[in-house]
Amino acid sequence: MNESTRYEILKQREMMKGYTSADAKEEPTDQQQKLPFPKPLKEAKPGDMIRLPLDFEDVVQDKGILTLLKERESCREYADEALSLKELSFLLWATQGVRRFAGRYRQVTFRNVPSAGSRHPFETYLFVRNIEGLLPGIYHYLPEPHSLELWAEKADYGEELKAALGGQEFAAKAPVTFVWSVLPYRTEWRYGRKAHKYMLIDAGHVCENLYLACEAIGCGTCAIGAYDQELLDELMEFVSGPSSEEDNEFALYAAPVGKRMTKGGE
């Protein structure tokens, strides 16, 4: 291992560590300095929203938590079968659905996954290929109205998504591929330089809920952390490259979803 690689590894290890004695000398966070509060949700683009059903109980199979935990595993092969809008609605609700708001002047959201300080820095995007009632394209999930908006009219994204996800063809051919972006400042506002560790932990909460929710409706998924940052950001119409802007947004995690065909993962 050369010195440059060793240095980069050490930097990343330090980011993973918790509080230290040096924190006492840390610059006050933007919250402590009473700087403007970042919005907890991304605003919708002008245009029509697609309302998602909330009566999705009938698509959830009768499985107890013990069975779900025992049978949860990564799935990379999917049946050539569409997901219903109710099934997609359930998966979105389970991973980022808003239960309620709290706070009069500085609102935070309480959702179906935990997040450090209820900051919830993620946005959910969907590469839709085969969902009943939806045209193929890229969609953005709006958690508070539990709706979708068409993010990009791009029905032929397959090859671009495959390239962005490191050549993993199964992900691009899935009925739907979830891509979570992160807006770091939502968490940085409160936690400063410690925020990035918390955001990575929070990402795991979201994807594990997707695994369990998929298992509950006869679907499978496979978490993907190997992707080309620049290609995926450009495909999702984000500004690629380093940025210290408060509205900076970039892709962080992905997971294709489809009906189970075979089992065999980790």
At a glance:
By secondary structure, this protein is α+β, with helices and mostly antiparallel strands.
Write the layout of secondary structure elements.
Blueprint: H1 3-16, E1 50-51, H2 65-71, H3 85-96, E2 98-102, E3 108-111, E4 122-128, E5 137-142, E6 147-152, H4 158-164, H5 169-172, E7 176-182, H6 185-191, H7 195-216, E8 219-221, H8 229-235, E9 250-259
Antiparallel strand pairs: 1-6, 2-3, 4-5, 4-7, 5-6, 7-9, 8-9
Helix pairs in contact: 3-7, 4-8, 6-7
Question: Would you mind describing this structure in some detail?
Answer:
- The chain is α+β, with helices and mostly antiparallel strands.
- The chain has a domain at 77-259: NADH Oxidase (3-Layer(aba) Sandwich), CATH 3.40.109.
- The chain is built from eight helices and nine strands.
- It has helices spanning 3-16, 65-71, 85-96, 158-164, 169-172, 185-191, 195-216, 229-235; strands at residues 50-51, 98-102, 108-111, 122-128, 137-142, 147-152, 176-182, 219-221, 250-259.
- The strands form two sheets. Strands 1-6-5-4-7-9-8 form a seven-stranded antiparallel sheet, sandwiched between helices.
- Strand 4 and strand 5 (137-142) form a beta hairpin.
- Helix 6 (185-191) packs across helix 7 (195-216).
- The two termini are 29 Å apart.
CA(first)-CA(last) distance: 29 Å
How much helix is in the residues? 25-40%
How many helices? The count is: 8
CATH topology of the domain at 77-259: NADH Oxidase
Q: How would you write the strand order of the largest sheet?
A: 1-6-5-4-7-9-8
What is the CATH level 1 assignment of the domain at 77-259? Alpha Beta
CATH H-tier superfamily of the domain at 77-259: NADH Oxidase
The average pLDDT is 92
Q: Note the run of SSEs as H and E.
A: HEHHEEEEEHHEHHEHE
Give the uncertain stretches in residue-range form: none
Strand tally is 9
Strand-residue fraction?
15-25%
- Structural class of the helix and strand makeup? alpha+beta
Biggest β-sheet, characterized? Answer: 7 strands, antiparallel
Determine Rg (CA atoms, Å): 19 Å
Shape: globular
Specify the CATH architecture of the domain at 77-259: 3-Layer(aba) Sandwich
